[in-house]
Amino acid sequence: EEFDFMDVAHLVNGKRGREAETKGDADGGIWTAGQVVGLIDSIPAVQELMDQMMQEAEEVILSRLNSMVSNDKQHQHSLRSKL
């Protein structure tokens, strides 16, 4: 017997999951999550999350900029003379 996708299309078209999401029914559909879910250790308020993300971004930016900017006067002079 030959398989036809249309025989199972109604089972995998996502209708049940969309209906569950619309109704807020966490048990009514399939929810996927990757390995990253194991890294979640808190559920902060939105403001707290945004503050934390901004702080982390600033730290990354500043640390990368500091590694690109030298405080060595000789090095700065050398760079300026090339301009």
What secondary-structure arrangement, pairings included, does this model have?
Elements: H1 9-12, H2 15-23, H3 46-68, H4 73-82
Structural summary, described in words:
The protein has 83 residues and is mainly alpha-helical. It is built from four helices and no strands. The longest helix has 23 residues, at 46-68. The chain is elongated, with a radius of gyration of 27 Å. It starts with 8 loop residues before the first helix and ends with a helix.
Q: Mean pLDDT score, rounded?
A: 83
What is the helix tally? 4
**Which range best describes the helical content: under 10%, 10-25%, 25-40%, 40-55%, 55-70% or over 70%?**
55-70%
SSE order in H/E notation? Answer: HHHH
Structural class: mainly alpha
Strand content: under 5%
- Judging from the principal axes of the Cα atoms, what is the shape? elongated
Largest sheet: none
The low-confidence parts are none
What distance lies between the first and last C-alpha atoms, to the nearest angstrom?
77 Å
Short description:
The chain has 83 residues and is mainly α. It is built from four helices and no strands. The chain starts with 8 loop residues before the first helix and ends with a helix.
Tags for this model:
4 helices; single chain; mainly alpha
